[in-house]
Amino acid sequence: MFQEQSAMPIRNPSTANLLIDSQDRNNLANTQSTDFTITKQSNILAGYFTRLGVVEIVLNYSIPNISAKYDTDRFSITLGGVTNVFRIQDGNYTVENVMTFLIQAAQLQFPGVTFAFGGAYGALDFSAVDGAGNPVDFTINDTPLARMLGLQIGADISLYEINQPNLIPKQLRYLDFVCTQITYQQGLKDASTSNYTRDILYRWNLGWDTPPPFDQDGYPINQGYIPFVQRRYLSFPKMVKWDTQQPIGQLSIQVYDANGSIVQVQTQDFINPELGNLEYSMGLLVSEQ
Prior knowledge:
Blueprint: E1 15-21, E2 35-39, E3 51-61, E4 74-79, E5 82-87, H1 95-109, E6 114-118, E7 125-129, E8 138-140, H2 144-148, E9 156-157, E10 159-161, E11 174-178, H3 180-183, E12 202-205, E13 228-233, E14 240-241, E15 250-256, E16 278-287
Antiparallel strand pairs: 1-16, 2-15, 3-13, 3-14, 3-16, 4-5, 4-8, 6-7, 7-10, 8-9, 11-12, 11-15
């Protein structure tokens, strides 16, 4: 005889939202969005839950990729025994923007020589000729910006290929969002091949979720070249376990760069608040067993 089996009722766990907004930080005008504390008169969240995780993050980003802060604003050329260093004003630049500036600057410093930025769609070059159209050799000296453009360093030639440029400072390849009040209870700790490892809520790797747009010379406009606002929804978020007896009384949030340092951004009382700014909101899903 077959034994009759009864079905086991399945109840999905109850869930709630924990919504975090960098604009809610205390002392908004004089604190950075990358290092702040949120304190309320009552607990932010009671401890009647067992796990939580980031399911959504919206990033409003306008940190300059060309900046004295990250030493990406210098470019140096030696021609005819004369060395000139050009400095680009802090801002958000595409490859086309940078090369346009460098050509104009070199033109002023080396009269009688015509610099050009030619080619199309991934095969551009940086070259120089004299008044008669003859090639003129020049040397591109070693700077972070020259390396970011993929230019050959130290050669004395008249034409340089711009090879796979990436105008994102190495420190800003990714951003780590950290809140120790949330992650300190997780038993399984985060790990990394980096020398700077800490438990994080989420790592934002700078990169578009879709194919990138291109500038007029055919080079990709990678995420971080220009200001952007982007939302990411995490279908499989990292889940942090929680002790139900422990409420969340305050939240301190930091944003670290790839060098393990807190990202330095503008505060709200600057003359140009959009230059070097970073704001964000996060949605955390809180659930019971």
